[in-house]
Design goal:
Radius of gyration: 20 Å
Distance between the termini: 43 Å
Bound molecules: threonylcarbamoyladenylate, magnesium ion
Strand content: 15-25%
Number of strands: 15
Order of helices and strands: HEEHEHEHEHEHEHEEEHEEHEEHEH
Structural class: alpha/beta
Low-confidence stretches: 215-235, 337-341
CATH superfamily of the largest domain: DHBP synthase
Length: 341
């Protein structure tokens, strides 16, 4: 990073201001995790309820003990194997960690992101703070309940002037948020699926993590779910245009039916070209391979949303583990669209 820009970013963080930063998953809206007033600015900018916990980003795995205690060996194993990377560990917090960042809970979410700019910023911020603990609290840099940003343009669209500085790290490599594993209870549990799969975790730790809830309507951790508080809405990652998931055959039929009714239909399909039908408003071909699909997912949803169609039909992803995280995000987008909760 340009040294002046890096200095400016550290200075803003030390002063309790917001800095948006790239990670390998999605862009984050960062603030000094030890400063409750700075954290309050994140909640205000996002319009997010204050009892939703934030992930604290660290420069390296050896900072973990400054923030968490009673860390199980399996959590250390995962950190050693996957950090820097798209994995968040939920652990019992150190007593000093401000409740502002944990949503009042006794646990803290920690992750070391795998993006060179984020790591450079985290290292410089930690150096400025040493020997005190230094972490950057960063939720996805979108307004509450909206699609996460994977480019600087998305961050501007979401938060604009509400953020003092946006660091440009190019489009995010992974494109969907980190896998969250909760180690604060008796057995590890995946609260949010991501690029690191349950099988990877089982292989590394010898423990098969539980998946929160089941399929397909369960709740799991995200902006709109407050852990251990019942009745939180399921909707998240929602475009404004209503979105429905269906298999490729039903999709073609539904397109004809809706078009007959005068509806403008946009389609996102990965295994078939969008059917050539006069009722089709816009057809998008998504990648047929899950990593590439995930990388483009949020940009595709934004672009489809911007078309102003009456409905977006999305081809249901394959029912295979490699597609699990994508299916989770699409399901949320569908349940968050107009007409549902
Ligand atoms: O990939 C990511 O994780 C991105 C990038 C920026 O790092 N961040 C992200 O943050 O997705 P956010 O705030 O949009 O989603 C994090 C979710 C929260 O909504 C919350 O449910 C869960 O992580 N979380 C954080 N701390 C937690 C805790 N102590 N207990 C349970 N869940 C927690
Ligand atoms: Mg988010």
């Amino acid at each position: 990073m340009n040294p002046d820009r890096l200095k400016q970013a550290v200075k803003l963080l030390l002063a309790g201001e917001l800095v948006a930063l790239p990670t390998e998953t999605v862009y984050g809206l960062g603030a000094d995790a030890a400063n409750p007033e700075a954290i309050a600015k994140i909640y205000a900018a996002k319009g997010r309820p204050a009892d939703h916990p934030l992930i604290v980003h660290l420069p390296a795995a050896d900072h973990i003990a400054q923030w968490a205690q009673d860390i199980p060996p399996a959590a250390h194993d995962l950190a050693a194997a996957f950090w820097p990377g798209p994995l968040t560990l939920i652990l019992k917090k150190q007593d000093w960690v401000p409740p502002a960042v944990t949503g009042g809970q006794d646990t803290v979410g920690l992750r070391v992101p795998a993006h060179p700019l984020a790591l450079e910023l985290l290292a410089a911020f930690a150096a400025a703070r040493a020997p005190a603990p230094a972490g950057i609290a960063a939720p996805s840099a979108n307004r509450f309940g909206r699609v996460s940003p994977t480019t600087v343009a998305h961050v501007r669209e979401e938060l604009g002037e509400k953020v003092s500085l946006i660091l440009d790290g190019g489009p995010c490599e992974i494109g969907i948020e980190s896998t969250i594993v909760d180690f604060s209870r008796s057995a590890p549990e995946i609260l949010r699926p991501g690029a690191i799969a349950a099988a990877d975790i089982a292989r590394l730790t010898g423990i098969s993590p539980r998946l929160r809830g089941g399929q397909p309507k369960e709740k799991s951790a995200d902006d709109d779910f407050v852990p251990r508080v019942p009745g939180a809405p399921d909707a998240h990652y929602a475009p404004r245009t209503p979105l429905r998931l269906m298999d490729s055959a039903s999709l073609a039929e539904e397109l004809v039916r809706l078009a007959h009714g005068g509806q403008r239909v946009a389609v996102l399909a990965h295994s078939v070209d969008a059917p050539s039908n006069p009722g089709l408003f816009s057809g998008w071909r998504a990648a047929a391979e899950p990593a590439a699909y995930a990388r483009q997912l949020y940009a595709s949803l934004r672009a489809l949303d911007a078309l102003g169609a009456d409905i977006i039909l999305v081809e249901t992803p394959p029912a295979m583990p490699a597609w699990h995280a994508i299916a989770d995000r699409l399901r949320r987008a569908a349940s968050g669209a107009a007409g549902s909760s």
